[in-house]
Amino acid sequence: MQFTKMHGAGNDYVYVSAFTERLPADLPELARKMADRHFGVGGDGLVVIAPSECADARMRMFNVDGSEAEMCGNAIRCVGKYIYEHGIARRDDVTIETGHRVLALRLFPEKGRIIKARVNMGAPILKSSEIPTTLVGDPPLRAPLHVADLQLEVTCVSMGNPHCVVFVDDPSDEWVLGIGPQIEKHPAFPRKVNVEFIRVISPQEFQMRVWERGSGETWACGTGACAAAVAGILNGFFDRSVTGHLRGGDLELEWSAGGDVLMTGGAVEVFTGEWPTA
User: Fold this and answer.
1) Buried b (16+ CB within 10 A) or exposed e, 218-239
2) pLDDT at position 245, please?
């Protein structure tokens, strides 16, 4: 079975095309094996690129633990790159079906290759019951959350998947690796949650580290960066356009006047290979 390893801002996944490959029935198990960094290809998970009845392609995304997520903002840019470069949809404007909704992408080709893409992530979901969280507010804004003998103030947003944004002076290991897993599984989040630790640099810039549900710390999270931008704007920290500095690279983010969040970033192929199926 042919696969392609790609990353967006260091958020790396193994990509397999259902257009050309015959996939096993147990995709969660395939994700666990292929994404294993010691015994497999290695990555933050598996992304299956499949035909769609309502878009140019469908994207299914599985975390390294085999759990299926609704959406990944960095992975969807790589899906756009793949379908363009493999002739599935060779246009600058394409659509991808996700577990959340159909999203529109603008691709930026150079000499037949896609180097970056802009994704219209749609409007953020701010109603607590739809994020979902039991924290109070639509959205929960500076909501109190008790974790590990700490009383935190958090802001919650969904970009098709749930996010809990925590503004800190320094997104250190103590926060990300120590507190991140505890927030992920906190009872206030019935479907668990992705956790972003954000240091405000200026109204136009922020530093971010992320603990992703089902994967642990990753070098970037596109939906998380969008959620952080929205949370920062709601809290009065950011302008409507802001750059997020993630461990794996930068993302340009805009919460447009029309209400949609736009995200622009790179899409990079690392290597291709063949995974044994017997």
Assistant:
1) bbbbbbbbbbbbbbbbbbebbe
2) 98
Q: Which helix (H) or strand (E) holds 74?
A: helix 73-85
* The overall pTM is greater than 0.85: yes
For the record, the structure tokens of 188 come out as 């206030």
Question: pLDDT tens for residues 68-77?
Answer: 999 899 999 9
- CATH code, residues 128-259: 3.10.310.10
Residues with catalytic annotation?
A: 72, 221
Indicate the CATH number for domain 2-119+265-274. 3.10.310.10
Angle of the 73-85 helix axis to the 222-234 helix axis, nearest 10 = 130
Query: How high is the pLDDT of residue 277?
Result: 86
Instruction: Please report, for the chain, how many H helices and E strands are present, in that order.
Output: 5, 18
Q: For residue 2, what pLDDT is reported?
A: 98
CATH 3.10.310.10 in the chain is located at 2-119+265-274, 128-259
Q: Is the pLDDT of residue 278 over 80?
A: no
